[in-house]
Structure formats: C-alpha cells, structure tokens
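thread from #wetlab-drylab

HS: before we spend reagent money on co-crystallization trials with pyridoxal-5'-phosphate, can we at least see a predicted complex? here's what I'd submit
DV: go for it
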Amino acid sequence: MIYYDNAATTSLLPEVRDAMIDTIDQYYGNPSSIHRPGREARVLIEEARKQIAHQFNITPAELFFMSSATEAIATVLNSCLRDLTIKNIITSKLEHPAVSRNLALLQKVHHFNIHYVAHDAYGHISMEDLEQQTMQHPEALVVLMHANNETGTLLPLKKVKNICTNAGALFLCDTVQTIGKFFINLDEGPDFATCSAHKLYGPKGVGFLYKRNNIDIKPLIEGGKQERTMRSGTENIYGITGMKTAIEIACKDNETVNKQISSLRTGLINGLTFIIPEARIIGSTQHTLGNIINMAFPLDIAGDMLQQRLDMNGVAVSGGSACSSGTNEKSDVAKALGVRDNEINIRFSLGRLNTAEELDRFLEIFAKTIAK
Ligand code: PLP
C-alpha cells in the first residue's frame, strides 16, 4: 500500500512502539496512588510532561494530557463560554469539525455570537479583517488553526498573536497539523494550543492541551481530579509515554524530514500536472505546511470515485478531512475554496516514511487509474 494520508493519521514508529511496550511491561500502578507502583507511574507521567514542555518552551504546569485534540478544543470552548463568559467567538469557515461542530453544539446552550474572518481563495486568513473584528469585539476568543488539515495553508501565528494581544482577545490555535513539523515556541504564541499524538507517529487516543498559566479555565468533565483537576480520568500512561517519544523524535529530525518531504512534494505536483495538465492546487502554494497537497481534477478526466479507485489500486488518499473521507461529498473547506461541481479534489498528505521510489510507482498507478 502507498500511504498518502498522513494528515489523517500516521503509523507508530518502532521506537514509539518499543517505549509503549516497555511501559506496559513495567508499569501498572495508578498514578494517583501513593504506594510505590503508583508513584512510579506518576514519575513517568511527570517526566513526560517535563520533556514535552521543554520542546515547546513552556512550563510543565501549562500542559494537560487529554484523550485527543478534539477533547482539548472542546475543553477550551466550553470553559471560555461557561466560566469566562465569552460572548464573541472570532473564527473562520475553514476550521476542523472539532471546532465548527462544537461551536454549533454550544450555540444550543450558550448565547454568544460567531464572527467569521474573511479568507482569500487560497485559504489565507485576512489579517486586516481579523484586526477589525478583534477591535470591535476586544474580549473575544479567537479560534484559528495553525495549518489547515485539508490544504496545509499556514496561519501567520505571530501576527495573529500580536493582533489578539493588542485587542485583549484570547487565542486558541489548533496546532494539530503543525506540532512536530517545525519548532513552535508556544510561549510566544497562542493562549491555548492542541496536540494529537497520532498525527506525528504516536499512538491514537492521546493528546495534550497547552493553556497559558495565567488563564483560569475549568474542566469539561468532573471526576477524580487528575491533571490538576483539568482532566479527570485515570491517565493513559502508555499513550503518554508513546506521545513523549514521538514528539522527541519529531522535534529532533524535523528539518531532515521536511527536506525529504519537500522534494517528494515537488515531484508529486509535477507528476500529477504532467498526467492531468488541468489539475490545480487547492490552498496556498506559498504559505504551506508542505506535506499536504490538495489537488482538484476535472471530473470528466479523473472520473468519479477517484479516492476509492486509487484505494483499490493500492493507494490510500483522502477526499477531505478523515471524518468526511469515504464519501464523495465536497467538504466545507473545498466548497469555501472554490472547488467546482465539475471537479473532484483529493488530499495527498506525505509523511516521513514515504520514498522517492514509491512516488514513481504512485504516478504510474495514478495514470492507469484515471485512464480506466
Ligand atoms: N484538528 C485538526 C486540524 C485535525 O486535523 C484533527 C484530526 O483530524 C483534529 C483537530 C482532531 O484530532 P483528534 O483526532 O486528536 O481528535
């Protein structure tokens, strides 16, 4: 199988698997217990917290382990509306469903206004519009993703941070697609950020929330007061160990991996446009994460059900976000960025395990798949 769906999820790196198995073999205590097995598990978690915090230039106290980035996002949205009584949320029409669908759900419970920031045809968020909107609603929560999961288009993090700081707004940045791809100094960045370990060769079902120290939000669910009361539920010690190892590896060699991916990206785009000259990139070509390439192809050339036909020929790609893959319905992002009715768009997302040899094979398969 040629796996070009690394933005949906990634496989476990062997080092991550080994670290998790060692933890499974050696640790069984409940980190909240005061006896030795419990204390050993506690030390493991706190060491992981320290190491991860160090990679992002934050303090361990600002990091909370959670089951997913979705949970981290829901925690912030719920608490900001419930505890900080935020009345205005400034976001975009290009956010992940973890943001957009949670906001829709919360509108049934809380009274608040959602303001959408303008974006251009490439998915660049308008800084001028953001500035105006934050000036109009200074006590808002701004929710914008760092890199779009369908197109890879990047947000200028520092500019957004400055705009929010100047206006006095809080800033939640969904950093799921960028964590581990390059160095992010969270201390100079958003007030809240998120990570999902399975996007960077770690295990599924574990992530973290970064929350700036001086902001007092409350948990989404109550219980045994784990994670300094921010996230009840016995800690997933195997997942946390796996995430720590995955982050360590990603942060160590991301420059090498990015170079390798950048050359594959060029080859992929050139190859696809050679086969279908009418193909066009959806999203930014200048401010982009690099590993995500979203291409729109004319339906009469590429044919319907392209994703499924590629799958049958041994290539895993996505038509949009993981949630909407498996259907041929255009995603909200594809619609917002102008993918036409007579086009079909496919997301190719590359990863550290993809090779140049595989790219040649992929292009042959692609040409055969569309010719059928
Ligand atoms: N945000 C973005 C940008 C994503 O790509 C994803 C995963 O698809 C999520 C949030 C949700 O992450 P998780 O799978 O940890 O809930």
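DV: The chain has eleven helices and twelve strands.
HS: ok that's useful, forwarding to the group
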